[in-house]
Design goal:
CATH class of the largest domain: Mainly Alpha
Strand order of the largest sheet: 1-3-2
Mean pLDDT: 83
Order of helices and strands: HEHHEEHHH
Shape: elongated
Distance between the termini: 49 Å
Low-confidence stretches: 108-112, 117-125
Structural class: mainly alpha
CATH architecture of the largest domain: Orthogonal Bundle
């Protein structure tokens, strides 16, 4: 596998998994950890990835990065949500479908705040 092919495969894998350890990537691609580190450095110039050291160390992809996916800007999404309140029936369903497709995915923190953390009622612990 050539360098370009490996780097493309690494970014695809990271976008799917969202996180991986350098030693696992080295094993999976049959290269040294130094090679993976060089690949990550090169990829970090073009993609929103970063490394972290310590017990949860590894390579991460920024939370809201999904290749090839375009999202509404927060102002656009807020306006559509405001307008959807007045819709009914099929129009409301269509607007909800649009918002699911193009709205930004909720972060884990936001989901926990909105729906609770599974330890009782929403917002309590």
């Amino acid at each position: 596998m050539r360098t370009t092919e490996r780097r493309n495969a690494i970014i695809e894998l990271l976008c799917e998994r969202r996180y991986e350890k350098i030693e696992n990537l080295a094993f999976e691609f049959s290269v040294s950890e130094c090679t993976i580190r060089r690949d990550i450095l090169a990829l970090s110039l073009d993609y929103p990835i970063y490394t972290r050291t310590g017990p949860f160390g590894g390579v991460y992809v920024e939370e809201n990065y999904y290749p090839g996916r375009q999202f509404l800007h927060p102002e656009e999404e807020a306006l559509l949500r405001k307008l959807s309140i007045k819709l009914k029936g099929d129009e409301k369903k269509l607007m909800e479908k649009i918002l699911r497709r193009f709205g930004r995915p909720e972060r884990k923190k936001e989901r926990r705040k909105k729906y609770g953390d599974g330890k009782g009622e929403a917002g309590t612990s």
